[in-house]
Structure formats: C-alpha cells, structure tokens
C-alpha cells in the first residue's frame, strides 16, 4: 500500500530538489496544515467572534469552576489509595490462583 499526500500536503516535488539537492518548499507546501481536512476558515476572528468566545469562557467557568489546590491534593490522595487497594487485590488474587 502506498501513501499519497492530500492536496496541499507536504510532498516535495522533483523540481524543488533538482537544482540544490535539498528540498525547498514551494508556496503551496509552505502552508502548514493540521489534520486531514482543510480549516473551516482562514480569516481572523471578528469582534463578535471574540466577544462570543469570551462569554463562553465565562459561562464554562461558572458551570465548571477550576479545581482548587486543595481539591487537586485530595484527588491525588484518593487515586493513590485506590492504586494501593487495586495492587493489593491483584497480589491476593495472584496468590490465590497460585501465580
């Protein structure tokens, strides 16, 4: 099976390497592309876009506040305890099965 880059991909052409022996991107190749589909838009955001984005950030912060340092420490303690319990259980099961 062979790979064929999509239109606008980063394949180097023979013409770009012929004169120097090094790959030099042409105008189409120098455009960075992430993912397999083209972007929905290459335009800069409008003032309305920026305002809506800011409102979304504020709404998300209200609905899903960031975790406090104390909350994070508690989460880590709980996960460490859970890891200890699971490891102990795995050892007990292994011993009971003669492993």
Structural class: mainly alpha
Q: Give the SSE order as H and E letters.
A: HHHH
How many β-strand runs? 0
What's the main sheet like? none
C-alpha geometry: elongated
Characterise the protein shown here.
There is one protein chain. The chain is an all-alpha fold and 99 residues long. The chain is built from 4 helices and no strands. The chain has helices at residues 14-18, 27-30, 47-63, 69-96. The longest helix is centred in the last third of the chain and has 28 residues, at 69-96. The chain is elongated and about 65 Å long. The model is unreliable at 8-22 (pLDDT under 50).
What topology does this entry show?
Blueprint: H1 14-18, H2 27-30, H3 47-63, H4 69-96
Output the keywords.
mainly alpha, 4 helices, single chain, 99 residues
Describe the structure concisely for a colleague.
The protein has 99 residues and is mainly alpha-helical. Helices cover 55% and strands 0% of the residues. Residues 8-22 have low confidence and may be disordered.
């Amino acid at each position: 099976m062979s790979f064929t880059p999509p239109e606008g991909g980063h394949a180097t052409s023979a013409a770009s390497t012929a004169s120097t022996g090094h790959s030099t991107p042409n105008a189409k190749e120098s455009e960075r592309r992430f993912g397999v589909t083209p972007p929905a838009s290459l335009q800069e955001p409008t003032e309305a876009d920026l305002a809506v984005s800011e409102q979304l950030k504020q709404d998300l912060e209200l609905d899903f506040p960031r975790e406090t340092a104390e909350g994070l420490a508690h989460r880590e303690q709980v996960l460490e305890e859970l890891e200890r319990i699971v490891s102990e259980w795995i050892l007990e099961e292994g011993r009971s099965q003669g492993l």
